[in-house]
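Newbie here. two chains, one complex. Structure please?
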Amino acid sequence: MKSCRTLIACLIASVFILTIPGVSLAGYDYIDITQPYLRKLPIAVPFFKKISAGDDAAQLSRTLSDLLSDTLDFTGYFKIMNREAFLADPQTDAGFANVTFHDWTSIGAELLVTGGVLVKDNLLEVELRLYDTFKEKLLIGKRYKGGISDQRRIIRRFCSDVIYSLTGDRGIFNTKIAFVSTSSGTKEIYICEFDGYNIRRVTHAKTITLTPAWSSDGQWIAYTSYARGKPDLYIKHLKEKRGTVVSKKGLNITPAWLPNKFDLSATLSFSGDPEIYLLTGTGKVIKRLTNNKGIDVSPAWSPDGKNMAFVSKRSGTPQIHVKNLDSGQVNRLTFQGRYNTQPSWSPKGDKIAYSSMEKGRNNIFVIGIDGQGPIQLTHNEGDNESPSWSPDGNLIVFSSTREGPSRIYVMTGYGTDQRRLLTLKGQQTQPKWSPRMTRK
Amino acid sequence: MALGSESDRLISDINVTPFVDVMLVLLVIFMVTAPMMMQGVDVSLPETTSQPLAAKKENLVITINNQNQLFINNHKVAVDFLQEKLKKILEGRDNREVYLRADREISYGFVVHVMAEIKAAGVDKLGMVTEPIREKKKGQ
C-alpha cells in the first residue's frame, strides 16, 4: 500500500503547455474507431534522446522507446516504422526538440513520437512529444518525473494520451486480464496487465478454480472454486482480505458482475435445475432471473445493465439468449450452429462475442444484438474459446490451442492482428478483461 | 465444366509474365527544375528548361555535392549503404518516386553509379532536378 502511494506521489505528470491552447481540441479525425478495416497509421518512434550522460540514460533511451512502440503497437491502430529507415539522428536536436518534419514525411511517417530521457540519482525524467508530421504540428507534449521503476507507468500514461488525442477514447492501458492457469499444477487464477506483463497469482486453493469475473470497479473478483470439494462461488477483494463464499447445494458457477453495481449474477442449482440468480456482492440471493426447465448458465450483462445474455438449452441445444430485465422477455439470439456458449457483451453494447462449436472445433464469433451476422473471427487454428472484450471495445482476449497447449491470445474486435499475450508453464484458459481501473 | 479433353485446350489469355519483367526493369527518368527556394544541401545544379518540381511534403531527394558526398534529404549516407537505406525507406512509403540533385561538377560515371543503386533499391521513377535557365547568364 505504502509503495503504491509513493509511486503515485513520484509520478507527477507536470503537463508542459507546449501546445497552443485550442490545438488539442482539433477533434479525433486520425483514427475512426468505428471503421472495421481502418488503415494503420504509420508512426515513427526513434530512440529517445539521452539528455543526461551515463549508461543509464543511454540504456533507458532505447528500452523506453521500444516499450512505447510495443505499447502503441498493441492497440492495432498503428504501423510501427522500421528505425533503420529514419533520416534523423535521435541524439541530435533534430531528433527531439527541433524536428525537421520533411525528414519524416519523406519516409512516409504520418505521426512521430520523440522523447528525451534524463536520469539523475535514480530519478527518471522523461519528456515525450507526439507530432503530426504532415500538418507540422505538436499534438501532445508532456514531461513525467518518477523513479526508475515507474517507467512502465510513464509510458502507459503517455500512450493513453496518444490514443485519447487520436481516437477520443482513453484506451486500455490501465486495465488487467484475469485468467486460469495450471502453472502450479492445479487450476488457479492469475492476473496480468493488459499486455501480459506483471503476472500475479491470485488464488492458492490447490484445487480447481474457474471462471474469474471482474466487478465493475475492478476491485473485486468472483470465481468458482472446488476448495470445499464442490463448485462454490467465491467473491474476493483483490487487495484486502475480504470476501464471501456462496456455497449452496449443487452448482455455484459462472459469475458475472452487473455494471456499476455491487451485485452479480451466477448460476446456482439448489432448486435442482441450474438457473441464473441475482446476488448481492455479499452473497445474498436477491431474486431468480431465469425460469425454465432447461439449463440456464453463463450470464453476460449489457453495458447499461438492462439486458442479460446467457446460454440456455431451452430450445434443445445450447444457444445464446437475451433477457430484458424490465419486460422480462427472453429472445433467442443465435440460430446458426448447434453449440453456442460463453457470451461476452461488447462495451459499446451493439455486439456479443461468443464461442461456437462446429465439427468438434470451437471458434469465436461476433453477432449483432439485432441478430446481424454472425461473423466468424477465428478459423482453422485449434480450439478458440472464452472471448472477452477490452473495455474500449477495440480488442478481444480469448484462449486458443493453436500452438498445442491452451494459451491466451488477443485480437481486434474484427478478428485481425491475432497474437499471443503471454507464455506461462501449463495451460491458460478463461481470460477476462478487467474494466478500466479507477485511479486511487 | 470443360468439354472433356482439358489437356488440349488452347490458352487464350495473354501471357503477362514478360510484360511484368519489362516493367520491373524500366526506370522512368524525368526532368524537373528546382523551385527557387528549395532548401537542403548546397549544390550548383545544371540548368535546363523543364517542368518545375512540385513542392510536396513527401518528396524524397537524393543529393550529390561537389565532393561526391551523398545525402538523402539532409542525411549523409555512404554510397555503399544507399541501396540498403533506400529499400527500408521505400517500405514505409506509398510511392516509389525519388529526386536526384547532382552537382554539375560531378562526373557522369559517378551519377550513373548512384542511379544504378537507386534503381536497385526498387525506385521506379527518378526525377533529375535541374535549375531553370537564368536569362542574365545567357546574355553574357
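Moderator note: The first strand of chain B starts at residue 28 and ends at 33. DSSP finds four helices and eight strands in chain B. Thread marked as resolved.
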